[in-house]
Design goal:
Layout: H1 2-11, H2 14-31, H3 35-39, E1 41-42, E2 45-46, H4 47-64, H5 66-77, H6 79-83, H7 90-118, H8 127-153, H9 157-174, H10 185-191, H11 195-207, H12 214-241
Antiparallel strand pairs: 1-2
Main location: membrane
Organism: Mobilicoccus caccae
Domain ABC-2 type transporter transmembrane: 44-233
Length: 242
C-alpha cells in the first residue's frame, strides 16, 4: 500500500515529471539530433545514439534525485514521524522510495530513447538494450540513494541548493557533456573519482566499444555504498530526534 502511495504521489506531480523528461530530451535535441551526428558512425551505432544514451543516463539521475525533496517535505510536515508510529519497517519505507524512483527513471529513459530513435539515433543490438538498462537501473539506483542521503542531511530549501549544484558538478567531472580528455590531465584525473564517471564510462564501453575500466566499476560500487551508508546513518539519527 505504501509503495502504491509513493507511485501515485510521484506520478501526479506534473512539474517534476515534466522537467525530468524535458531536460534530457532537450539536451539530446540540442547536442545530438541532426543529420551530421545521425550519419557519423561509431563501432556500435552512431554518435547520435551515444549522445542519446548519455542524456538518458543524465535524465534518470536527475529524476531519481527528486527523492531528496520528498524526504525533506515529509520531515518538515511530520509525516516521517507519523510513519514511525505505524508497523511500516524502515526497509519497506526505503524500498518504496527506491521503487518509485525506478518507475520515474524508466519513464524518463524510455521517452529519451524514443525521441532519439525517432530522430535518427541508432545503437546496434544488443548494446542498445544494455545501454538502456544501465541508464535506467544504474543511474536511478545510485542517485536515488544519493537523494535519500541529501534529504536526511538537509532541510527545506537547502536540499535544492545542494542537489542542483552537486549534480551539475558530477555531470561536468563525469564527462557526461564534455569528454574529459578535452579538459586536461588534471581534470581527467579528478573526474575518474567522481560519482557519474563510472556509469558514463560503462555506457561508453557499450555505445562506443571502449574498454571497461576497473576504476569505473569500483567507483560505481563505492559511491553507491557510501551514499547508502550516509542515508542509513542519517535515517537512524533523524528517527531518534524527530
Amino acid at each position: 500500500m505504501y509503495l502504491r502511495l509513493e507511485l501515485v504521489r510521484a506520478l501526479r506531480n506534473p512539474w517534476t515529471i515534466g522537467f525530468s523528461v524535458l531536460m534530457p530530451v532537450a539536451l539530446y535535441l540540442l547536442f545530438g539530433a541532426g543529420p551530421a551526428y545521425g550519419a557519423m558512425e561509431t563501432p556500435r551505432g552512431t554518435v547520435a545514439g551515444m549522445i542519446m544514451a548519455n542524456m538518458a543516463l543524465f535524465g534518470a539521475m536527475m529524476a531519481s534525485t527528486n527523492v531528496a525533496g520528498s524526504v525533506s517535505d515529509e520531515r518538515a510536515s511530520g509525516w516521517t514521524r507519523q510513519l514511525r508510529l505505524t508497523p511500516l519497517s524502515p526497509v519497506y519505507y526505503i524500498g518504496a522510495k527506491l521503487l518509485a524512483a525506478l518507475a520515474i527513471g524508466l519513464f524518463v529513459v524510455t521517452i529519451t530513447f524514443a525521441v532519439g530513435v525517432a530522430t535518427g539515433a541508432r545503437l546496434d543490438l544488443p548494446y542498445a538494450a544494455w545501454a538502456f538498462l544501465l541508464a535506467w537501473l544504474g543511474g536511478t539506483t545510485m542517485f536515488a540513494v544519493f537523494g535519500l542521503a541529501v534529504g536526511y542531511l538537509f532541510r527545506g530549501e537547502a536540499v535544492l541548493g545542494v542537489v542542483g549544484p552537486f549534480m551539475s558538478l558530477f555531470a561536468f567531472f563525469g564527462g557526461v557533456f564534455i569528454p574529459l580528455e578535452q579538459l586536461g590531465s588534471v581534470m581527467s584525473t579528478i573526474g575518474q573519482y567522481t560519482p557519474m564517471y563510472g556509469l558514463r564510462s560503462l555506457l561508453a564501453s557499450l555505445t562506443l566499444g571502449a574498454e571497461v575500466e576497473p576504476v569505473a566499476v569500483a567507483g560505481i560500487v563505492c559511491w553507491t555504498a557510501l551514499f547508502a551508508v550516509v542515508a542509513a546513518w542519517r535515517y537512524r539519527r533523524v528517527a531518534g530526534r524527530e
